[in-house]
């Protein structure tokens, strides 16, 4: 089969189109003809190196978010059939370790990630356990389906499972145009929350307004916390979703109301954050790390997405052979929504 692979770390130029053996469809597996796969930040970070996920090896075929058509099913598969339109939950738990037995699949000791620690969707075919293959309704295009798993899974878990977002609360989320920000906005609005988005780009903020956000703030041209207080009648946000890391960590805390909650789940601007400890405990703030979603959480998100009349925002679509250009687009800073590769 054709695939995009890299055997050394570096820039987008290390992504090469190659011919590799077709994946084997095991007894409990589903073999999928890939129609679309999303380009995620993880793809670029691991391409740059070093590999971030335990178990990552070279050579590597990226692509965690996969949508396509079932080409073959294993002898033990009972829930999927050849020709069915499907998408993949890329976080594959083993089901037998102590964490899995407790239902805590996020911390599975044998966890594998499609496109992260095992071959992914930058290819014509991918094999995945039946348990992690979900049907795609006929009205959803493959490109939209491939744009959903990671960003909506993370946003759903961060806001509903970890953050406990409630109707009537005010959410502040950074990074206008980011896939996870757009997902968070759609989730929060449909849960009845008020949403403020921050960015350094007025153009992207204007586009977020069209998606239904209640207020926008440009953190590059003014004090973020002061702007958030102005937008909330002086109280601050109930909850902040910070997926960018240290760059806005203290500003996020300062933008919270008394006893507000900071949910953080990203490190694109670094891995070490500093903040005013005294201010944080005096104001009763809660800092919540949002780990990767688990198996049950993903299923809840997917069921919600099907019923919530959402539509993932697509930035651009590239053919598989132009994966390097798709990575250049991702790293160029102008992306609004998800970048897709089609096969």
Question: Could you characterize the architecture of this molecule?
Answer:
This protein has two domains: 2-148 and 312-342, Medium-chain alcohol dehydrogenases, catalytic domain (Quinone Oxidoreductase, Chain A, domain 1), CATH 3.90.180.10; 152-289, 3-Layer(aba) Sandwich (Rossmann fold), CATH 3.40.50. The longest helix is centred in the middle third of the chain and has 14 residues, at 149-162. The chain is of the alpha/beta class. The protein has eleven helices and 17 strands. Helix content is 27%, strand content 26%. It starts with a strand and ends with a strand. Helix 5 (179-190) links the parallel strand 10 (170-174) and strand 11. The mean pLDDT is 96. Helix 4 packs across helix 10. The strands form four sheets. Strands 3, 4, 5, 8, 9, 16 and 17 form a seven-stranded mixed beta sheet that branches. It has a six-stranded parallel beta sheet with strand order 12-11-10-13-14-15, sandwiched between helices. Strands 1-2 form a two-stranded antiparallel ribbon.
The figure for the number of domains is 2
CATH topology of the largest domain, what is it called? Quinone Oxidoreductase, Chain A, domain 1
What letter string, H or E per element, gives the SSE order? EEEHEEEHEEEHHEHEHEHEHEHEHEHE
> Span from first to last CA?
11 Å
Please tell me the CATH architecture of the largest domain by its name: Alpha-Beta Complex
Percent of residues in helices comes to: 25-40%
């Amino acid at each position: 089969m054709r695939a995009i692979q890299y055997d050394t770390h570096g820039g987008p130029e290390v992504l090469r189109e190659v011919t590799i053996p077709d994946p084997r469809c095991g007894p409990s597996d589903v073999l999928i003809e890939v129609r679309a796969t999303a380009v995620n930040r993880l793809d670029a970070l691991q391409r740059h190196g070093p590999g971030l996920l335990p178990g990552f090896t070279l050579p590597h075929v990226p692509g965690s978010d996969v949508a396509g058509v079932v080409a073959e099913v294993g002898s033990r598969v009972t829930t999927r059939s050849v020709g069915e339109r499907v998408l993949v939950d890329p976080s594959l738990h083993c089901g037998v370790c102590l964490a899995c037995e407790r239902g805590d699949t996020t911390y599975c000791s044998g966890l594998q990630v499609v496109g992260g620690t095992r071959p992914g969707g930058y290819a014509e075919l991918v094999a995945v356990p039946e348990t992690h293959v979900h049907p795609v309704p006929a009205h959803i295009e493959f490109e939209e389906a491939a744009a959903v798993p990671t960003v909506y899974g993370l946003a759903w878990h961060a806001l509903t499972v970890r953050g406990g977002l409630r109707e009537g609360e005010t959410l502040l989320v950074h990074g206008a145009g980011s896939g996870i920000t757009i997902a968070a906005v759609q989730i929060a609005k449909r849960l009845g929350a008020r949403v403020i988005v921050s960015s350094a780009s007025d153009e992207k903020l204007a586009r977020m307004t069209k998606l239904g956000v209640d207020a926008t703030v440009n953190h590059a041209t003014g004090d973020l916390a002061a702007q958030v207080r102005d937008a909330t009648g002086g109280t601050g946000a109930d909850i902040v979703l910070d997926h960018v890391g240290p760059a806005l960590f203290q500003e996020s805390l300062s933008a919270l109301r008394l006893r507000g909650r900071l949910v953080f789940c990203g490190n694109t601007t670094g891995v070490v954050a500093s903040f005013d400890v005294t201010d944080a405990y005096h104001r009763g703030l809660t800092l919540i790390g949002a780990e990767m979603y688990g198996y049950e959480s993903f299923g809840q998100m997917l069921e919600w997405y099907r019923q919530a009349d959402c539509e993932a925002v697509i930035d651009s679509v590239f053919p598989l052979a132009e994966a390097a250009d798709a990575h250049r687009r991702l790293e160029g800073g102008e992306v609004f929504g998800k970048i897709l590769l089609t096969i």
